[in-house]
Structures are given as structure tokens and as C-alpha cells.
Amino acid sequence: MKKLMFVLACVLAISACKKESKNEVREEDKQIIKIGAALPMSGGNAALGASLKAGILAAIEDKSKEGLKYRYEAVFENNQMLVGQTATAALKLINIDDVNMLLTFTTGNGRVAAKIADDLKMLHVCATLEDENAKPMGMTTFFQGPTVQSYQKLMLKALEKQNVKKLALLAGNVGVACSGSEQLAELLKSKGIDAEVQCFNPSDRDFRFAIRNYILKGFDNFYIQFFPPQTDILIRQLKENNVAENHIFGSGIDTGTDVSVFEGINHIGGNSGTPKFINRLMEEYKIDNVYMAAASYDLISLAIDAFENAQDVHNVYDLVGYFKAHATRPCMSGECRLLDNGFIANEAEWRTYKNGKPVAFRD
Amino acid sequence: MEYCLNIGILFCIYAMLALSLNLAVGLSGLISLAHAAFYGIGAYAVAILMSDHGMSFWSALVVGMMLNGILAFAVGKILSKFNGDYYAIVSAGLSVIVFSVLLNFKSLTHGPLGIYGIGKPQIAGYTFFSSGSFLMLALLCATLFYVIFVLLDKSSFGRTLKGLREDEELTVCLGYKTLQYKSFAFTLSAIMAGVAGSFFASYIAFIDPTSFQLGEGIFFFTMITVGGLSSAFGSIVGAALLLILPESLRFLGLPYETAAQIQQLIYGALLVLMMAFRPQGLFGKYRM
Fold first, then answer.
1. A123 and A84 together in one domain
2. How far does the CA of residue A269 sit from the closest CA of chain B (Å)?
3. Which domain holds residue A207?
4. Is residue A171 part of a domain?
5. Cα separation of A234 and A170, whole Å?
6. What is the CA radius of gyration of chain A?
7. CA dist list (Å): B19 to B86, B96, B179, B189
8. How many CB pairs under 8 A join A and B?
9. A positions 336-355 inside 8 Å of B (CB)
């Protein structure tokens, strides 16, 4: 009897397993959802493109472990961070590579792709830093990143903590860097901090005269909001003038490949994620930096959830509806919060470098 | 399909630019690097007037043409005092000035944030909204530019321009007021570049100063050098080649890690080879 029971149990177990494997769709048989990304992959901003790309691949890798209905693949195109190239790259991804959604980087490129996405009824997401009062992004577009206001709030807190009385702000005429610095200076002045802003053209390389001028005027603290290579040059030229690391502040400055120059400088980074995430991306994807990688990770993770839950993956409004309902959530970039204009605002975060490696910590 | 239409529209815009620049460089021997500036002024005129002041595309286009005409006429007077390399350097200076104005005159141009939501042209209530209809309009304009170039090339005016290109002193000795000829050719060329910029702004619907840097001017210069100086057909071929060549490299199936860099290397190497074996360009009638 015991033997019979054992055999029956075995037969039942085997048939149950068989049934389960019958329902399970093999990975290679799953419908493929293609994620297209138009990113800077050559030139001065290639490090940013590599970082965003790592975020996308990590999101696909992590989500795929959850046992998904569809198989997700990423397709990348170089847009050289130029608006004309973004239009061409986005259309190539949509028409030739047949992608199901788009990802871009920075507001200008995002605005170009947003129009294309609207016209062709496609889900589009963009990782960027934006003013929380910016005009709506598009019917099928969601931007994500820290807001200019969240940067300012965090910076003000740090400056007050360090009892800074005079601050010279050196910004680039790039994106929201200059206007953001001007807003920050106004905020600082209202709090009794003597603040002066100077904006430079993107081609400028020598800032010694401005630095000397500020030092002569008694400014002993400096704030930088620029992109590489100017950030690196500015820090080196500040150090040449004996400005100590703890007197240098910045926002979104460590976007290049040589991160050793940022050692000891306190600044606000853009979407780097948790320390574990940073280390994983740097080791697994062999990248030097993780600027904005958490934003692309968050956006793609949310997009994968939207595809998995959509009635029809080709109906953009199903996907948009999911985004609207679920974009406000805890995310890799901290707390994500969907604003009325389609911007998913996340927390700003402090970033510093220890032994050449970035460490991010939230306030 | 949209991708092909996009390439077609960009080709028409580049063809307009190449024809306009070839009018100054190829036909008249004026080595201008200022065309990115005129292209930018045309684009910004349409963007500002349409987005911020609600004007129609055509009215904004005319204002842009007038602005470019006035600026080019004034600058042309200064530039006409220079020749050859010096002309190129001074014209490059103009390009840098215009770029700085576009970047820093924030109350007008919105600075680095750019201008978005730029509308499409309309004729009798019909909006050229679809890429197909926009392509037709751009193609019509590029064809018109081609005809203007060919007519000028064959006219006595064109022959005088070629004469001053080959030997300015001799042309002066023959009794021609070369300064006026140079000034007219430069002004017309600038107006045409502005029209191309207006089409670009309306098509992309977003512009920022990065599209109008000196580097763009050098890119336009490369188009006509590759296609052939003083040749209308060469301008078209140059525009097509410099647009299609990098695009075709997207289809090589290179690994993502190195694709962008290899594409740039191949593109650069092809240009070097072309210039080494065909310095006058593919259909060039004149060699610098």
C-alpha cells in the first residue's frame, strides 16, 4: 500500500510539473518589447550616455528576474546631444527598429522627441533636470529628474549648516544651469547670504580672472553649475587659487570620466541611486560614473510595469494611464512624485567622492 | 516611412543651405563661415515670432529674410574689404557673435533653454502638418533655390561673379564695381540660408543655440566642398552625401559599445579620402 501511495504521489508530482511547464512560455517564444534610446554616445557627453544606458540595461535585467509576460530588448542610437540628430535617431528607432517606446536625455532633446512621440502615438520618457513649473511635456511624454527647486532647497540647507556668508556662483550657459544659479542666488540673498552669479559660455575654458576677482571681493566660497570639461577646469583653477575643497559646492557637476578631481567636494548629484546601485553599475557595466542612471532605471522599470499591465501594448493611452496612476512611488532616485505637467520629480541627493568612488546619500 | 520622410526634409533643408553657401563661396569666391549665423537668425525669427507673437510662418519668414538681408548687407560691406583667408576669419567672427547673442540675449531668445512649440506653415487654411506635405513644401523651396542658382550661374551677373572670383583686379580693370557684386551675392546668399533656417525651426519645432554654432558653418562648408564648388548639382550631391553617409553607418550593425565612435571614425576617414583623391569635389568647377 505504501509503495502504491508513493508511486501515486510521484505520478501526481510529475504531472503537476508537466502542467506547469506547459503553461510556462519559453523565454525565446515571448513577444519582444523594444525600448529605443537616443543618447549621446560619442563626444564630450558620451560618459552621460553610457551611464543612462547602464541604467536601462540594469532595469531590464532586474525586471526580467520577476518572470514577465514579454521579453524586453534595448536598442540604442547616438544623437550626439543635438536636437536635429535626436529627431533622426528617434525616427530611425521608431520606423526601422520598430521600438515600442523611446527614452531621451535632457530637456531640449526631450522636447523634440516629445513632439514625435505625440504625433506617432508612442510612449516617451526623458531623464532630465527641470524646473517644476515647466510647461507640459507632451501627451505621451514623461520627464523624470530632480527639480531645480529641490536642488536649491538642499543647497541652501548645506550652506546654512556650514555658515556660509558669501558665495560666488559660477555657472554655464547650458540648459537650466545659469537660470537655476540665478534663482539660487536670489534665494540666498533673501536669506541674508551675499551671493553673486556669473554665467559663462559653453566654450569658455579660462576662469582665473573671474575667480581672482571674486577672491579680491572677499568671496571665500564658490558654487559651480556647469558640465565637463569646464567643471574639472573650474575646480582645478579654484584649487590653484588656494580655495579648499570644503569651500567648493556644486550641482550636477561630476558628469565626466575623471572623478578624482571631485574628491572632498560637496555637491548635489543627479539621480545616482543607492550606494549599492552605484557600485553595481560601475562594476557590472564598467562605467566611470552613474549620473542620471537612476532616472533611466526608474523610467524603464515603470515602463516595463506599464507594458506588463497594459490591455494592449500598442495602445499608448493604456501605457500613459499606467504612468499617471503609478508614477508617484518610492523609486531608485528616492521618492518619485508626478506633477501636473507630466514631470516626475524626484529627490535631489548629496554626492561626494571617497577614494575615487561616488557615494550618494539622501538628506 | 516617417524616418525616410525625415531624411528627405533634412536633405531639402541642407540642399537649400548648400546652394546658398555655394552662391557665395563657389560662384563668388567669398569664403564665408558665417552661414550658420544666417541660418540661426532665420530659425530664431520664425521661432520667436510664431511662438511668442503668434505670427504666421510666412510673415515670420519674410521678417527673417529682411533681418538677414539687412545684416548681411551691412556685414558684407565690412567683409568686402577682406579677401581669401581673412574673409573666412572675419566671417567666422560674425558666426561667433551671433551664437553668443542667441545664447545670452535671454529675454528674446530664451538662451540655452531654447524655444519649443514652433508651428507649421499654413496656406489657405491648409497646415503642412504631416511630414509628407512638409517634404513637398521643402522640396519646392529647394527646387526654387536650385533654379535661382542655375539662372544666376548662366547670367551675365553670374559670369561677373566668376570673373571676380578668378581675378578681382582684372574685373575691376574691366569697369565692374566688384564691391557691389560681392555685396549682392553675399546678401542673397544670407537670405537663402535664413529661409533654410526657418524651415528647420518649423520642422523640428524646437531650437536652441547649439544648432547654430561655428561648427555647423564648417559642416555646411564641407557639404559644398565635397559636392563641388560652383556647381548647383554638386551642392545637392554634397548635401545628400553628408546627410546619408552618417545615417547609413547606423545600419552597419556594430556593437553598441563602439558603434558611435566607429561611425564617426569611418565618416571622417571617408571625407579625408574623398578630399585626397578629389579635392575639387565630386562635381566641382572651381578649386580653392
1. yes
2. 20
3. 162-269
4. yes
5. 9
6. 24
7. 23, 22, 22, 8
8. 88
9. none
Classify residue A231: in a domain, yes or no.
Answer: yes
For chain B, say whether A82 makes contact (Cβ under 8 Å): yes
- The three-point CA angle B158-B61-A119 to 5° equals 120
Interface contact B17, partner A, CB < 8 A: no
CA dihedral B13, B18, B23, B24 (to 10 degrees): 110
Q: Are A72 and A86 found together in one domain?
A: yes
Show which of residues 161-190 on chain B sit within 8 Å of chain A, judged by CB atoms: none
A84·B112 Cβ contact <8 A: no
Q: What grid cell was written down for B272?
A: 579625408
Q: Which of A269, A285, A305 is the last residue of a domain?
A: A269
Predicted local distance difference test score (pLDDT) of residue A164: 93
CA distance B267 to chain A (A): 13
A176 touching chain B per CB within 8 A? yes
* Grid cell listed for B260: 558611435
Each residue's pLDDT tens digit in chain B (288 positions)? 889 999 999 999 999 999 999 999 988 888 889 999 999 999 999 999 999 899 999 999 999 999 999 999 999 888 888 877 888 899 999 999 999 999 989 899 998 888 988 999 999 889 998 999 999 999 999 999 999 999 999 999 999 988 888 888 888 888 888 888 889 999 999 999 999 999 999 999 899 998 898 888 888 988 898 898 889 999 999 999 888 888 888 887 777 667 777 777 887 887 788 788 888 888 877 776
Residue A227 one-letter amino acid: F
Whole-Å CA distances, B72 to B31, B193, B223 = 14, 11, 22
User: Cα separation of B163 and A132, whole Å?
Assistant: 60
The ipTM estimated for the assembled molecules is 0.82
* Domain co-membership, A188 together with A223: yes
pLDDT at A14: 57
CATH number of the domain to which A201 belongs = 3.40.50.2300
Looking at residue A112, what is its pLDDT? 92
Task: Return d(Cα B271, Cα B281) in angstroms, integer.
Answer: 10
Most B-contacting residue of A35, A39, A42, A126 (CB-CB within 10 A), to test interface: A42
Distance from CA of B71 to the nearest CA of A (A): 24
Q: Do A262 and A285 sit in the same domain of this protein?
A: no
Whether B112 and A173 lie within 8 Å, measured CB to CB: yes
Residues A281 and A338 grouped into a single domain: yes
Domains in chain A: how many in total?
2
Nearest-neighbour CA in chain A from B19: distance (Å)? 20
DSSP A162: T
Domain boundary among the residues A215, A247, A269 is at: A269
Same domain assignment for residues A67 and A105: yes
In a domain, residue A190? The reply is yes
Report pLDDT digits (tens) over A186-227.
Answer: 999 999 999 999 999 888 889 999 999 999 999 999 999 988
pLDDT tens profile A29-78? 889 999 999 999 887 788 889 999 999 999 999 999 988 999 999 999 99
pTM listed for this prediction: 0.84
Positive or negative: CA dihedral A295, A289, A128, A118: negative
DSSP code of residue A103: E
Q: Does A188 map to a domain? A: yes
Report the residue of chain A nearest B130, measured CA to CA: A119
